[in-house]
Fold these 4 entries.
Entry 1:
Amino acid sequence: MTIEQLKTENEMLKQLVKYGKIYINYGSSDCDGGHSGGSLTFTSVDELYKWIDDKAYWADGPFGWNLVESNDIQEEYRYFTR
């Protein structure tokens, strides 16, 4: 793991202690011009890593996620650019 990955995991653990959950915002695009995103919560670091692995496996376009505070979660969205 890199220093940045360790820092992010440390922040995840802090959220688990503070809220009992890890909060993320995510977004993705597919090859047909579809874009979607929203927010998710996880109850463990391993659960979040599994989601990332699954999302990467099935992705047919770029996706990303950000660790956020509970008051910064985004609304779910979906739109097409084609």
Note: The chain has two helices and four strands.
Entry 2:
Amino acid sequence: MEWLRQNAFLAAWLAPVVALVVFLFENKKTQFANVDWTRALVRFAFLVALAMEFVPGIDLARRIAANTILFTTLGWIMMDRVR
């Protein structure tokens, strides 16, 4: 259990990979004709920034950049859901 506690950030890095695989499988049916690239890239950036927040060894400058991306994309996702 100690290993899992120390390496819990690995699950956070698995989320962008799973999201990318699901994105590819969902859009393979339509040959990527009707892809909303803005939403896909914003959600992917959100997941990567969220994963960076859980990594314990990231320096302050990268953590601030990840926070900026995280909250900006979170705000965009929330406003997109309202529309």
Note: Helices lie at 2-6, 9-28, 37-54, 60-82.
Entry 3:
Amino acid sequence: MQRAKVATLLVSALLVSALIAPFFVTNNFVLHALTMSLIFAILAASWDLLFGFAGQVSFGHAGFFGLGAYASAMLSYYAGLSPWLGLLAGGLIASVFGLLVGFPSLRLRGVYLALATLACSEMLRIVVTNWVPVTRGTLGFNLHPGFTFVPNTPTTHYYIILVGAALSTGSMYLMAARSRLGLVLRALAVDDIRAQALGVDVFRMKLLAFSVSGFFAGFAGALYAHFIGLVTPNETASSLTILIVAMATIGGVGTIIGPAIAAIVIHFITEMLQIAGTVYDQIAVGLVLMLFVLFLPDGIAGIVRAKVT
């Protein structure tokens, strides 16, 4: 009970801090970095939902993110779909992609599953890079509109992304930690053979985890597309997945909130370090990840849990 109260207080404090942040941040670059950090919070939490609760290793999570971004952007331009509906469309298309990736891949385990998901993400990157008439290739797709019917200001964009991040992360937390689905997924991660013996349709539940995780990653990609105004093949690169995995590990796998908080902190710091040079941010993330893996394997969430108990 005490742990739940502390967790509630921490989350409430973070939400209040996030709500009032634009009143204290006057530099547009800093506010931009904070806004991008919120998008990465959704992305890190979606990977944690798949691995931390369902136990499915994915090295192709950037594919969901990139597909959601491209889908929402191109539907807004080619089909005239509202960007607001494009957010849902990007998530749904990434969710379907999760089903397509999961159906053959989930017959594999461990490193083979990870390599299969990486291969699917790389195939998607090759497609968007070479389908120049539609995606504009390495030039990037920038023909789609931004968020419509709202002021085009950094503060407005920040609050739009904040609402999306709060709803997404909160939904994933309730789904994973407070629902029957979460219990089933944790049972699969611990021992899927025993879960199957108890009557759980293991393959179907794993497929569902891929689909739901893909939806939220695609939703994050759609938010990114309409916020930045440019989508490139880099959004599907494996280096992005590695960064997501690092964020989730540092935050604490299997907690949802931990990876989301870590993503906000890490991405914001790396954005600030890019002022000094593009290499220093990568070095910093690598060093922090090594320290957490060696000395704090339970991540930030583990530190909070230890202080409470």
Note: The mean pLDDT is 86.
Entry 4:
Amino acid sequence: MKIKINHNDEDLWCLYSKERIGVGERYIVVLEDYLDMTIKKIYSYDCLEMLIDEYLEQYDEEPEIFGDD
């Protein structure tokens, strides 16, 4: 998981809540590998706890969370 800040994308949407992520707001990028492809999933920052809980349930360990470059 990577926490980023939306610097200029006027059309960035949360996959879970289906709400727009405004310029200046934090969001989360999750990269998942499926069939030799990497899929980039975008979530609003409000989904962080839910994503951590899902990761813990699936992998039984804390996820690595990185900040914005």
Note: The mean pLDDT is 95.
